[in-house]
Amino acid sequence: MQVPILKQGPYLIATVQSALTDADMMQLRDALVAQVGQHRARGVIIDVTALDVMDSFAAGTLQDVAHMARLRGAETVIVGIQPDVAFAMVHMGLTLEGVATSLDLEAGLAHLDLSTGVSSHR
Amino acid sequence: MTFVELEDGTKPTSAALMRQVVSHLTENRTRLREEWARRIGEAQLLTAMTREEIFAEATLIYDSYVDAIATRTLETLEAYAQDLSERTVPRGVETHEVLGMVLLLRDVLARSLFAKYQSDSELLDRVLDAYEPAANAIAITVAAGFVRERERVIREQQEAIRELSTPVLRVRERLLILPIIGAIDPLRARQLTEQLLRGIRAHRAKVVVIDITGVAAIDASVANHLVLTVEAARLLGARVIVTGLSPEIAQTLVKIGVDLRKMSTVGDLEGGIEEAEHLLGYTVVPTAKPAPA
Amino acid sequence: MKSAEVAEEARVTVESDRDIVAARMRGRVMATELGFSSAVATLVATAISELARNILLYARRGEIVLASVERGDRRGLKVVARDDGPGIADVAQAMQDGFSTAGRLGLGLPGVRRLMDEFEVRSSPDVGTTVTVKKWNS
Q1: Contacts of A91 in chain C (CB under 8 A)
Q2: Which chain B residues are closer than 8 Å to A86 by Cβ?
Q3: ipTM score here?
Q4: Contact between chains at B232 and A102 (C-beta distance less than 8 A)
Q5: pLDDT tens digits for A51-103?
Q6: Could you tell me which of C122, C39, A88 has the C-alpha nearest to residue B198?
Q7: Which CATH number is correct for A5-116, 3.30.559.30, 3.60.15.10, 3.30.750.24, 1.10.730.10?
């Protein structure tokens, strides 16, 4: 299942809509990193509200996206992690260190506006 | 539910005997009921109730009792026991009072059967053989119903206490406070975490102050759990500030090697709230008069 | 009896990354049927995801067997992850945080142990690896 990526102002927004296989995750990573360059995006938001499990592979891949995007000049925010999912992740020791997290899309956009000094509302 | 003992087909006279017992109990209803109510008073049972209430209750039980024997089913009695429990548990009636009361009725009725059949000991034996299992089943039904209701009430109260003891308070937009008071065991720690994480999403909180001034000490597993909670809150997008760490808790955290970079701590709750407001971009300006509400 | 409604056993063959998703979804359904809270069902599903991925990474093929179990009046879910791959050379080492031979984070087995109530791993180079974990409904 492919994850749609939308461009909004200087940001890319990827909204996960169902459970993802490892291959889907890697495809998402590659697509985002490529599009950050194409669009010279300043920020990336990955909305994982629909994910009911985030295991070590998914968390590791999201962390990779954040690091690669940062090397290409964009800040990444993961938004919408569910309470149960967060609870399981921390038990596993998956804390997404070095990656910003926000409650939802709105909070993620506000975070990016603040940290990149640009505004998405233009 | 039916009395198996009463449906014993090998003793065809048993049903007839029970009919005799029932008519005896129906005919002597007034006298036996009064006798029973008097014995309840003597035994100092149901002290939370007035004499009139006890007599009214005794009437209801007596009739359900006779109904249970006559119809050989416990359904009416079960419904009554449920009703009795719902009425009396909140008034502080104890299990031994309810059980004692039902056993007294059993004795009062048994004595009256003795008196009636004492001239024919063989018949008396058979009457008692038929009566006793029924009487015991009735006593068990009423007592079990009462205990069940009590347990339900206790569970409800425990749940309420637990929720009261870990309230997630919304102080202002996007700021939650979780004051924890009392001992934290692993079960409570887990409930607390679940409540907090759900609270963060429900209130769209950005900053949470967990105040543990009211917690004297925690063991290593609860300390670890606290750290997990802080990390889980961050994954949701909320910052956690922990305030009010006692010297003992600080020692525990250091001893188990908590990575303190992952946890912001501020001395007291007031300082924690100031820090939280700072994070939210509010500035606190002292005013001459209180701001209008 | 309520227990009769619960599927006694479910088996998921793991040979592609799609099977990882299928196994953990099946696990969540069974955990929910057993009356686990959604938070605990998520812990179970996450553990299954890790175990299934280990099978794929290290043995390429294997199976996840899910079964409801009882002890006294407690009910639980047992997950067995079995493969006949190369086995784990040093189980103690594999249980250390941060250890991994297939790259990535290497949080797999120690993480699974923290998610579940009971954990047991048997492995040898000839017969492969079997990881058995259980979660009890509290």
Answers
A1: 43, 46, 111, 114-115
A2: 197, 232-233, 235-236
A3: 0.94
A4: no
A5: 999 999 999 999 999 999 999 999 999 999 999 999 999 999 899 998 999 99
A6: C39
A7: 3.30.750.24
